[in-house]
């Protein structure tokens, strides 16, 4: 195998099949590929050929999955070990209303909510579960605000492995919890927030030999790199100027920078887009740290309507700082009102997303207004989850429970007679 695990801090190396998530020094681990060995093996033509391959009678993840198409850059597993649900291959939407809203003509939304369980987590989970199978894990586990648990439960069920999910009691959207329950995961509701659940699950996994599949696990992030590879391939390997994404536990921020660095080193692209990570004001420890030029590592008690990024102590902090250094990136924060208004715009364009996704759209709009992103830049915004992941927030926004809903589409009370209905309809059409 041409990969190893390497500590970001002390540079200690471990075998790729070692069951560990941190170095002995406490530092985070990276999956390191032998880029010198890969250079003669990978090319734009290789990946373009796989993308263009017609589906076979017996599908192969190397052509059908938007993750395993880039197998050499992700995890060189044998095809028989791969646990895949045809994840990836998500749409890049270009909608004039959204372009006008954010103030950028070439604005694209990459909708990761089109993955099998409705979020980007499937890209990481196909790789994490495959690695769990390869090393003979007895079970898999995660802490989650919802999307991770849904994805872990689905992929573990496909692999025939027990799944354990630790969720903060009362702090998970029903649309996400229902998936974890339906796919058969044993769900433990923790008296605390996500950060408490994350601390606990790491200790439990280390004690019981259960394989942890949060983004602390470096193999999870390898799968999430495929979002960037798809974007680059979708633009004919001519990178956009910006990639803007929501930021919670910072796994995607970390993965995106690593993908871009590797793509440039391998000659797939000749320049790096800038990364903008966007947090909710009430859950903005990375933004607060960014404002100090990372002299202070800020943590906080997080609170935001965007449950998927309601995280006050993100585990991929160091990896995400590295991404900003590689890409001349930045961090922004947006209010919950800005998030929900942006979500209403995405929903109203017929695309739809969960609240956390809309942070990237709201963040793009704010950065344009601040003169940081220019109207003639090409921008890709990441929508991380499906609209139905958190239907409660959507209903609250449109029915008057959300106090500052500027774009609400409230249901109309009408008498049950044709004349009354006609008067309402005529006002619409």
Question: What is the helical fraction, as a range of percent?
Answer: 40-55%
By CATH, the topology of the domain at 92-118 and 218-398 is Rossmann fold
The 3D shape can be described as globular
Radius of gyration: 21 Å
**In order across it, which strands form the biggest sheet?**
4-5-13-10-11-12
Describe this structure in words.
This protein is α/β, with parallel strands linked by helices and 429 residues long. It has a domain at 92-118 and 218-398: Rossmann fold (3-Layer(aba) Sandwich), CATH 3.40.50.1100. The chain has helices spanning 35-38, 44-52, 61-64, 71-74, 96-102, 121-134, 147-159, 174-182, 194-208, 218-234, 251-265, 285-291, 317-327, 336-348, 355-369, 391-398, 418-428; strands at residues 3-7, 13-15, 29-33, 92-93, 106-111, 140-143, 163-168, 186-190, 211-212, 242-246, 274-280, 330-334, 378-383. The protein has a six-stranded mixed beta sheet, sandwiched between helices. The chain has a four-stranded parallel beta sheet with strand order 8-7-6-9, sandwiched between helices. The longest helix is centred in the middle third of the chain and has 17 residues, at 218-234. The radius of gyration is 21 Å and the shape is globular.
Quick summary:
The protein is 41% helix and 14% strand.
Can you tag this structure with a few keywords?
429 residues; alpha/beta; Rossmann fold; four-stranded parallel sheet
């Amino acid at each position: 195998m041409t990969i190893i695990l390497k500590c970001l801090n002390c540079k200690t190396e471990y075998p790729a099949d070692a069951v560990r998530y941190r170095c002995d020094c406490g530092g985070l681990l990276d999956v390191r590929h032998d880029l010198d060995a890969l250079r003669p093996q990978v090319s734009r033509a290789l990946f373009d050929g796989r993308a263009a391959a017609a589906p076979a009678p017996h599908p192969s993840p190397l052509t059908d999955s938007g993750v395993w198409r880039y197998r050499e850059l992700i995890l060189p597993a044998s095809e028989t070990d791969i646990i895949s649900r045809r994840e990836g291959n998500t749409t890049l939407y270009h909608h004039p209303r959204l372009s006008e809203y954010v103030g950028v003509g070439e604005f694209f939304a990459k909708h990761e909510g089109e993955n099998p369980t409705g979020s980007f987590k499937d890209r990481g989970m196909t790789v994490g579960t495959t690695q769990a199978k390869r090393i003979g894990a007895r079970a898999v586990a995660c802490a989650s605000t919802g999307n991770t648990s849904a994805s872990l439960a689905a992929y573990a069920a496909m692999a025939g492995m027990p799944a354990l999910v630790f969720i903060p009691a009362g702090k998970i959207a029903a649309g996400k919890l229902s998936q974890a329950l339906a796919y058969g995961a044993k769900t433990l509701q923790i008296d605390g927030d996500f950060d408490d659940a994350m601390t606990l699950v790491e200790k439990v996994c280390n004690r019981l030999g259960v394989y942890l599949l949060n983004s602390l696990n470096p193999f999870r992030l390898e799968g999430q790199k495929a979002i960037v590879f798809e974007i680059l391939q979708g633009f004919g390997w001519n990178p956009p100027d910006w990639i803007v994404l929501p930021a919670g536990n910072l796994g995607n921020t970390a993965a995106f920078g690593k993908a871009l660095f590797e793509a440039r080193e391998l000659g797939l692209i000749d320049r790096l887009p800038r990364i903008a990570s966007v947090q909710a004001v009430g859950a903005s420890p990375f933004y607060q740290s960014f404002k100090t030029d990372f002299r202070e590592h800020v943590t906080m008690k997080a609170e935001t309507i965007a449950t998927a990024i309601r995280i006050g102590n993100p585990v991929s902090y160091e990896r995400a700082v590295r991404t900003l250094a590689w890409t001349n990136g930045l961090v922004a924060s947006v209010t919950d009102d800005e998030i929900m208004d942006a979500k209403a715009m995405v929903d109203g364009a017929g695309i739809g997303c969960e609240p956390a996704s809309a942070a990237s759209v709201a963040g793009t709009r704010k950065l344009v207004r601040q003169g940081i992103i220019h109207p003639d830049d090409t921008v890709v915004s990441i929508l991380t989850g499906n609209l139905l992941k958190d239907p409660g927030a959507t209903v609250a926004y449109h029915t008057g429970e959300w106090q500052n809903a500027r774009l609400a589409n409230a249901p109309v009370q009408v008498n049950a007679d044709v004349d009354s209905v006609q008067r309402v309809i005529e006002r619409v059409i």
